[in-house]
Amino acid sequence: MTPSTQRHPAFRLLIAAILIGALFATGPIWAKPQDQERWNKKYEVDAFLFGKQPVPFLKNNVGLLPKGKALDIAMGEGRNGVFLATRGFDVEGWDISPVGLEKARHLAKEHNVSIQTEVVDLESAELPKNEYDVILMMYYMQRNLFPQIKEALKPGGMAVIETYNVDYLKYQDFRPQWALQTNELLEAFKDFKIIRYQAYDDGKEAYSSIIAQKPME
């Protein structure tokens, strides 16, 4: 045999290993299998962990939102996205947990509405641009999604975001990096029109909420 033919099988194995490694490295759903397993385990109960009602901030202000296509980021069991669907929105929900999304679809069925769901690793997700009239992100913190949310909204579209802020650390053992800084949402959406904003603290929990509208082009 020539040296080149002797090296050929090993070379092919090396290439195969590289290709397989690249496949698993870039897979959008399985980039965080431990997160998926953790949330699946949380949702594998009959009860809805966070209830079936939407957060009050969304419920109280739904009339301000432009009707059309809505994306619920980190949909979980679907209480917020399904609420929008009952109000005539075309709802799409993304979450890393297929178990949570299955419960969301059951909740939609209870309300005689339909939703679209997709299992997505949000840490590697890329939102399409100028696609949605409304984007929800409730009690999920990922700062690098703020710019993507702004680009994914259509002109005149609105972002609705609510999650814990730094004052919540006074009441619960919570990772500081997951908490909004004071006025952080206002700063992140300073180039949008602020429709509603609140910083809530009742002595037991604390969170910030915003509805921000993308400028018309």
From TrEMBL:
Residues 58-198 form the Tellurite resistance methyltransferase TehB-like domain. It comes from the Bacteria. Pfam families: TehB. InterPro entries: SAM-dependent_MTases_sf, TehB-like_dom. Keywords: Transferase. One of its GO terms (molecular function) is transferase activity. This is Tellurite resistance methyltransferase TehB-like domain-containing protein.
